[in-house]
Amino acid sequence: LDHDAQPAVERPSLAVLAPVGRCLRNFVTFSDDATFERAFPRTRQPRTPARELCPVTHKLALYRDPITDIPYANIRAFRIIREAYKKYITAHGLPNAGTGTAQAEHSSRTRQKIIIKQAVPPT
Questions:
Q1: Cβ-based neighbours of 96, under 8 Å, separated by 6 or more
Q2: Could you tell me which residue ranges the Vps72/YL1 C-terminal domain spans (predicted)?
Q3: Chain mean pLDDT for the chain
Q4: pLDDT above 70 covers what percent of the chain?
């Protein structure tokens, strides 16, 4: 056991460790509420996006079919939508098939929406 006094290790103060620089803070004080409102007008709250319903199940649609752009709620509804789309394609052909190149370029840039109405089978 060593009872001799240990020399104290000096630690540098925080002021020495802090980077050398300046910190500026600006305070703007308004005399009344009208002046504050003119400087910082209130913006409208952003509108929440419209909630879409699944046309098959009539439930809240959580997903969207990338080909038909139809909202759907579950995998069963997705399969019904795709089956109806396949029947539509076999009966009518692909939309915009056989058109000019200018229209083909335009259709590739814009998303085509195909509306398919189908009765919901009773469950």
A1: 103, 104, 107, 112
A2: 52-81
A3: 77
A4: 61
* CA 49 – CA 111 distance, rounded (Å): 19
**What number of CA atoms fall less than 13 Å from residue 61's CA on the CB side?**
19
* Local confidence band at 42 (pLDDT 50, 70, 90 cut-offs): confident
> Under a CB-based contact definition with an 8 Å cutoff, are residues 84 and 91 in contact?
no
As a whole number of angstroms, the distance between CA 96 and CA 103 comes to 8
